[in-house]
Amino acid sequence: MNRTSFLYRNSLSITLIILMLFSLTGQFLTGLKTENKELVENGFQVLTIGEYFYSGHFIQATFENWESEFLQMMLYVLLTISLRQKGSSESKPLEGTEEVDREPIPHPKAPWPVKKGGIWLKIYKHSLSLAFALLFLISFGLHFYGSLINYNNEQSMKKETPVTAMQYLSESRFWFESFQNWQSEFLAVASIVILSIWLREKGSPESKPVDMAHDETP
Question: Which spans in the chain are helix H?
Answer without folding.
Answer: 6-9, 11-41, 49-53, 56-82, 112-116, 118-124, 127-157, 165-169, 172-198
